[in-house]
C-alpha cells in the first residue's frame, strides 16, 4: 500500500494528542540545522502566500494581510517592501492608512508634476525678465 506523504502527515497529526504538539515543536526547533534555516523558510513561504493573497485585489489593508498570515503589521510591511523592490509586486504602500495599493500609480500625478515643472520654469523666465528691465 502506497500512502502519500501528505496522507501520512494527516494520519500522524490526527493520532497525535494536542498536548504533545508543544513537545514535538520544541524537539524540532532543538535541531540546529532546522533552527538555522527555519526563518528563511518561513519568509519564503509567507512571501509566496502573500503574493497569492493580494493577487485579486487593487487595494488591500495591511492589517488584513497580517491577520491572514498570522504575523505583525510591521512584518507584512517588510515583506511588501522587499517584494516591491524586487519588482515581484507592482504597487505602493500608504503607511498612513495602512494600505497596499497594487498596480501602477495613475498617470495624472506624472502629468501634474510635469505641468508644475513647466510652470516653474516659465515663472523663472518671467522673474529674470523683470529683474533685467529693472536694472
UniProtKB/TrEMBL annotation:
Residues 1-107 form the PCI domain. Gene3D superfamilies: 1.25.40.570. It holds the Pfam family PCI. SUPFAM superfamilies: Winged helix' DNA-binding domain. InterPro entries: 26S_Proteasome/COP9_Components (IPR050871), PCI_dom (IPR000717), WH_DNA-bd_sf (IPR036390). PANTHER family: 26S PROTEASOME NON-ATPASE REGULATORY SUBUNIT 11/COP9 SIGNALOSOME COMPLEX SUBUNIT 2. This is PCI domain-containing protein. It comes from Haematococcus lacustris. The lineage of its organism: Eukaryota, Viridiplantae, Chlorophyta, core chlorophytes, Chlorophyceae.
Amino acid at each position: 500500500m502506497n500512502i502519500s506523504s501528505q496522507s501520512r502527515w494527516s494520519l500522524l497529526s490526527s493520532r497525535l494528542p494536542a498536548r504533545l504538539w508543544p513537545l514535538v515543536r520544541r524537539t524540532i526547533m532543538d535541531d540546529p540545522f532546522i533552527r538555522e534555516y527555519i526563518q528563511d523558510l518561513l519568509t519564503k513561504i509567507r512571501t509566496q502566500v502573500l503574493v497569492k493573497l493580494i493577487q485579486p485585489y487593487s487595494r488591500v489593508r495591511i492589517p488584513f494581510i497580517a491577520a491572514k498570515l498570522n504575523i505583525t503589521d510591521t512584518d507584512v510591511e517588510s515583506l511588501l517592501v522587499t517584494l516591491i523592490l524586487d519588482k515581484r509586486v507592482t504597487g505602493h504602500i500608504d503607511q498612513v492608512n495602512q494600505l497596499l495599493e497594487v498596480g501602477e500609480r495613475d498617470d495624472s500625478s506624472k502629468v501634474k508634476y510635469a505641468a508644475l515643472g513647466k510652470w516653474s520654469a516659465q515663472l523663472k523666465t518671467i522673474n529674470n525678465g523683470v529683474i533685467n528691465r529693472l536694472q
